[in-house]
UniProtKB/TrEMBL annotation:
Gene3D superfamilies: Cytochrome P450. Heme binds at C339. It comes from Cocos nucifera (Coconut palm). This is Cytochrome P450 711A1. Pfam families: p450.
Amino acid sequence: MRNAIISLYQPSHLASLIPTMQSYAESLSLNVSNAQEEEDIDFSELTLRMAIDVIGKTAFGVEFDLSKHTTSQKSHQNHYGDRDEVSGFLNQHMYSIETLKMDLSSSFSTSLGLIAPVLQKPCREVLKRIPGTGDYKIYQNNRKLCKRIDAIIAKRSNERTHDPKDFLAAVLNARERGAGEKLFSHNYIRALTYEQLLAGTKTTAFTVASTVYLVSKHPEVEKKLLQEIDSFGPRQVIPTAEELQNKFPYLDQVVKEAMRFYTASPLVARETSRQVEIGGYVLPKGSWVWLALGVLAKDPKQFPEPDVFRPERFDPTCDEEKRRHPYAHIPFGIGPRACIGQRFAMQEMKLALIHVYRHYIFRHSPKMEFPLELEYGLVLGFKRGVKLRAIKRVLNRCSMRI
Ligand code: HEM
């Protein structure tokens, strides 16, 4: 299956996505500029809108139009449907992400599964039919979400293309070419499609928002970052994919350090396909193994003073970086099932950060809690958003907008 879509993540295809990604980065910046004086911006909501739009367009071939028109323009119509339709979709998607928790605040069946895994499935089967329960709400929400995704798939199935530019078209083409109904059953395509939305939106949005949150608390980092971005060239010059990779070494360090500080996907799981020995423990076939990327990222042996935000620790010339174990920092996972969207995400995040920092710097709103409160799940979230105030950059000086 990975083979059917892998070409969409190759450098040549990613380079062709720059104009699309840039247009949503510009919408993000426009939404920042729309804020009134002394108005707090929920930056994490804006980055989520951007990330959903980017995946909508590049993976589904659909314009969700969430970032181009924020909540103040409710009457706007878009290509996907009307505004209520889109906000319904967004709400269902958000609810679905939020309920992907693995703690006692999740549904009863999930909590029960933590103590007695064998009871989880039968318990869920019963509770999902009882209105008022968490399991019922999740089930109903997922049903509605599936219906919306099915509608997108049905629409795209009728559009034939020989040169698929998005994920869904590539999957539908592979089915047409004879990969067969068996492999690409309807449910499987739906699950894969939703996986893209799930895996590629909150992770990217969270990382962009947490990077800006951290940079705005560290003026020395901000100064260095702005110098790098400004010295690249005039604001209107959009970096190419190659320039994004080679001309922004400090931005790379800042994003890596932000991902270490707040690891968007703190846990990844594997099931052993045979008996293995790990660290002296023998695990029988079929055991679940959880790798805690977020814990690795705070290991003081690999990252001295792990609670200090210091992008320079990722400078390739510094001793700390040279000494570090090659697998100490793996926010995109590792091995054959590692994140397929890593390059995609880096390209999108760097374009967005370059664009917003060309026009703004940010300070925490007085309402921003400290320390930052996080919501733990398969993907990390912000409990109360990232509330910032923007300062418009004018040529070489900064003029306060707040
Ligand atoms: C900052 C952004 C992102 C982070 C931190 C992230 C992180 C991860 C991690 C940790 C995994 C699990 C890897 C493992 O099990 O070893 C994963 C899997 C995956 N990611 Fe990402 N991801 C990001 C963005 C994206 C984007 C933008 C896309 C799609 C465009 C994407 C698509 C996927 C898919 C499809 C998988 C499952 C791969 C498989 O099972 O073969 N991710 N990601």
